[in-house]
Amino acid sequence: MDDLGNWLRGAREAQGLTYQDVEKETRIRARYVEALEAGDYEAMSGGEAQLRGFLRRYAHFVGLSPEEAILRYERQVHKRPEEPPPVVSPTPESKASPDLSLTPSPWRSLWVILALAVVVAMALGGTWLIQRSGWLSGSAGTTPSAATTAAPVTGTVTAPLPSPPATDAAPSPAPTFPVAPAGGVTVTLEAAEHVWVRVTADGFTAFEGMISPGGAASWYGDEMVVVESGNGAGLVVVVNGQSQGRLCGRGELCARGWGPRGEIEVTQP
Q: Which of these CATH numbers, 1.10.10.10, 1.10.260.40, 3.20.190.10, 3.40.50.1000, describes 4-77?
């Protein structure tokens, strides 16, 4: 398998593109494009999330598969082994003879039915003979009447204890982060007052400026979206349609980031 950088460089050069051409169309700095082709992944200031975002964007621009780019990166850097081909068991030439002892027989079923019929007939005949002879009433030769057979019940009758009421199972906790089915992450900022904001999506600056009260805007990232502000109390953050509350405290300079699986740790300004 070719090196990841050579794979990317070959696709770029085949289209006659320069580093500046890639930067102009993808908004990835030319020095980062050159670092990707050279395998200098430590040059990415945004860490793993930024690197993966750049790889996806660059591969898509030069006509390569973004998923293949990530897979090659994981195999080269994280030593992810390739999936072995499935093992197909050889088909035996001759089938094993079936176990005839386990095959149900119609005669065996018939004998079982006849035996059950005989048992039921004997039970009914015995009951009839007992009632006929008067054994249940205690006197031979007479049929017990309702007055003689109804004997008072003595002793203490204990009522069955009521079953304890069934308790509902404890509800499962609601997810703390809404994962988008299509992947990626969408961050929406709702301003309650005049706030300075800088938004970075997949390693490049998507917005930097003031947001007025009542204003709202959304940004999408394949790998991450980072929000920086000097007054986080004036911003309400909504991630994948679910509110995450205020960005941070009043007058506090802070930065927070989110990826496809939840909030990620970012360097504070």
A: 1.10.260.40
Longest pairwise C-alpha distance within the chain? 118
Contacts 24+ apart (CB under 8 A), 99-108: none
DSSP strands (E only) in the chain? 185-191, 195-201, 204-211, 216-221, 225-229, 235-239, 242-246, 254-259, 262-264
SS3 237: strand
Record the pTM: 0.43
- pLDDT tens string, the chain, 269 residues long: the values are 458 999 999 999 999 999 999 999 999 999 999 999 999 988 887 788 888 999 999 999 999 999 999 999 999 887 765 555 455 454 444 444 444 444 455 556 677 788 787 777 787 776 666 666 554 444 444 444 444 444 444 444 455 555 555 444 444 444 577 888 878 889 999 999 988 899 988 888 889 988 998 888 888 888 889 999 988 898 999 998 899 999 998 888 899 999 998 899 888 87
Rounded CA-CA distance 137/144 in Å is: 5
Say how far apart CA 239 and CA 176 lie, in whole Å: 11
CA distances to 111, 112, 118 from 124, rounded to whole Å, are 20, 19, 10
d(CA 190, CA 175): 22
